């Protein structure tokens, strides 16, 4: 993008000395300029000479320059400003927890002036699996190929791992052309994002016989680790611990005869809504009670953010009984092969932007 800058008139001889480039431009009042253009970069400057074909004058415009680099903790306020223009579910604390898990996972596009204009995440979960999400570029900068540069940088980060992501149906072909050839067809991700009062009275508070729900304590971590690994198939100890110990997070753990049979968390997201996830349990009726009690631990939140698996009927039924509309239906794509887990145990995703389940 360019903005009008000084030097309204140049000779065509001056232009002929410049290196040819291709750009889109706006005029002095921000309008898109129409017509046939010849774009030429002026060597040794950050300006571009624009010859409007058929005219004898040339205007120069300042080029927007930006850098692609890893996320830094001090970037959080600017990243949240970018994310608030979309409907991302994560919290500020979650961003910082995931960065600890993989310091190179979130990259940002930053103007020379310091403004963040885009971000993208690719989280390495283990030697075989990575997951991409949180992809966002401010609309006024999307014509600068920011998205392509973020994507290419992140794709290099994951190397040869099986990379998964979620996308809407209208973007499937875009990602298939970028290497995401494998589509999960047996389920999809249902995204609920709602601002308004929450009616938890419609949810059951009756636990099945023999089940105890306990508030998180450090002493429960080993039991949670074992349950989580059994469900997803690989070790996530550090990110599970960080999730449970984030200051604004409330976590409940389900036990049966002393063995962990589920756990769930709720936290405040960037919209000040209650973001539920992960919420895993062997018995979906336990999941409903846990869901109710988690929400009741966040009475002052302004709504709900939650992502479920489409074939978990109880989870989706709970949200519908609360009168919360579906925000989006996301498809799961992979670069190599599908991941298989028992989706009946997934009441809510861990984090739809950073984790496959």
Task: Explain what the structure shows.
InterPro entries: Acyl/Acetyltrans_Enzymes, Acyl_CoA_acyltransferase, GNAT_dom, YitH/HolE_GNAT. GO terms for molecular function: acyltransferase activity, transferring groups other than amino-acyl groups. Residues 66-210 form the N-acetyltransferase domain. The chain has 357 residues and is of the alpha+beta class. It is built from nine helices and 19 strands. The strands form two sheets. Strands 6, 7, 8, 9, 10, 11, 12, 13, 14, 15, 16, 17, 18 and 19 form a 14-stranded mixed β-sheet that branches. It is globular, with a radius of gyration of 24 Å.
Which descriptors would you attach to this protein?
Aminopeptidase; 3 domains; five-stranded antiparallel beta sheet; Acyl_CoA_acyltransferase; acyltransferase activity, transferring groups other than amino-acyl groups
Helix content: 10-25%
CATH 4th-level superfamily of the largest domain: Gcn5-related N-acetyltransferase (GNAT)
Uncertain spans = 1-32
Count of individual helical segments? 9
What is Rg?
24 Å
Q: Based on Cα principal axes, name the global outline.
A: globular
**Major sheet characteristics:** 14 strands, mixed
The CATH topology label of the largest domain is: Aminopeptidase
Question: What is the annotated CATH architecture of the largest domain?
Answer: 3-Layer(aba) Sandwich
Beta-sheet strand percentage? 25-35%
CATH class of the largest domain: Alpha Beta
The overall strand count is 19
In whole angstroms, the N-to-C terminal distance is 38 Å
Average pLDDT score: 84
**Series of H and E elements:** EHEEEEEHHEEEHEHEEEHHEEEHEHEE
Structural class: alpha+beta
């Amino acid at each position: 993008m360019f903005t009008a800058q000084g030097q309204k008139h140049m000779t065509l001889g001056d232009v002929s000395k410049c290196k040819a480039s291709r750009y889109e431009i706006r005029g002095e009042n921000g309008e898109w300029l129409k017509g046939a253009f010849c774009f030429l970069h002026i060597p040794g400057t950050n300006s571009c000479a624009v010859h409007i074909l058929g005219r004898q004058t040339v205007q120069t415009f300042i080029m927007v320059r930006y850098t692609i680099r890893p996320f830094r903790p001090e970037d959080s306020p600017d990243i949240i400003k970018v994310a608030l223009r979309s409907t991302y579910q994560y919290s500020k604390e979650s961003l910082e927890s995931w960065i600890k898990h993989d310091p190179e996972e979130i990259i940002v596009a930053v103007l020379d002036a310091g403004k963040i204009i885009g971000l993208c995440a690719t989280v390495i979960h283990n030697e075989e699996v990575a997951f991409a999400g949180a992809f966002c570029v401010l609309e006024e900068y999307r014509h600068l190929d920011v998205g392509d540069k973020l994507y290419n940088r992140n794709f290099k980060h994951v190397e040869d791992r099986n990379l998964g992501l979620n996308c809407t149906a209208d973007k499937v072909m875009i990602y298939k052309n970028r290497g995401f050839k494998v589509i999960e067809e047996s389920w999809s991700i249902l995204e609920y994002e709602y601002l308004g009062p929450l009616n938890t009275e419609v949810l059951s508070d009756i636990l099945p016989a023999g089940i105890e729900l306990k508030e998180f304590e450090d002493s429960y971590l080993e039991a949670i680790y074992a349950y989580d690994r059994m469900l997803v198939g690989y070790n996530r100890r550090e990110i599970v611990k960080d999730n449970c110990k984030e200051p604004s997070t409330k976590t409940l753990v389900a036990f049966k005869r002393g063995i962990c049979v589920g756990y769930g968390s709720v936290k405040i997201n960037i919209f000040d809504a209650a973001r539920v996830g992960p919420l895993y349990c062997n018995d979906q009726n336990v999941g409903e009670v846990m869901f109710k009690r988690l929400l009741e631990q966040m009475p002052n939140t302004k709504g709900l953010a939650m992502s479920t698996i489409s074939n978990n009927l109880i989870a989706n039924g709970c949200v519908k009984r609360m009168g919360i509309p579906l925000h989006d239906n996301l498809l799961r794509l992979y670069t190599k092969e599908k991941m298989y887990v028992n989706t009946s145990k997934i009441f809510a995703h861990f984090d739809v932007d950073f984790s496959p389940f």
